Input
Amino acid sequence: MFRATLLMMFVAVRFAVAASRNEEADFAFIDNGEIRLGIKKSSGGSIGYLSRSGTNRNVLNHFDRGRLVQQSYYGDRDGTFWGKQPWRWNPVQGGDYKGTGAKLLDLKMEKESIYTKTLPRHWSGCVDLPEVTMEQWIQLTGALAHVRFKMTYNGTNTHSMQAQEIPALFIEPEYGLLVLYDGTKPWMNGALTRSEPGWPNESRRMTEHWAAYMNHDGFGIGAYVPIANELTCYRYGREGTEKGACSYFAPITRFAIKPGFVFEYEVFLTLGKTKEIRSAFSALQKR
Output
């Protein structure tokens, strides 16, 4: 029995190591000596890793094809279901809810930059959407990851106005305190608002166009989206108690997707204490 137990433990360790190596090989990384960012190739090149250089403390959640930092857009109801929930036309950069990843059509990398082109999947319909192309440009500059997203729609359907995630951001569950400024005097060093979102979605204003999730040590990740004034957010599960637990927020804007529609926007990501995050984003106002 003792030998059998040791054999089972050895096999389990070998399997875990192999799984870890396979996952590592699925990522393409860039690192500028301050931050390290990785895209997940099997999930359409979506961002799935962000840490400070020299550490392995990834703040991002990539539990499934939807749990990344990625493009996701919404159109009209189309008779598809997410499980048992009626859903709508929803091209997603990472893949679909059943676990099939979006196709990475192009990948170009330099030491501190990445370009990707992706054929997205319909989240609930679980099919490729050839009428949509998603592109992504990432550049590391100091402690900032500058991401430019582009979606091109060549379909024939005219969708109605929808709230759009720009982008969807999924964070590890230890980062549970949402921090932002929602006052009337942005960039004047006014008091920040701190809260722990519940479940399901809640809404917040962010009049400095950024928000951050922090952990109990006061360390976290911030995202600045210059064109967004509000966000949607939630917390699912709790760290160490529930499989798939995560923190989520998405800056929001509204538009309708129509034939010939092209949408581009930029996002800045950074890590650190709240003061560091706000200071980094405040400096961008002088660009």
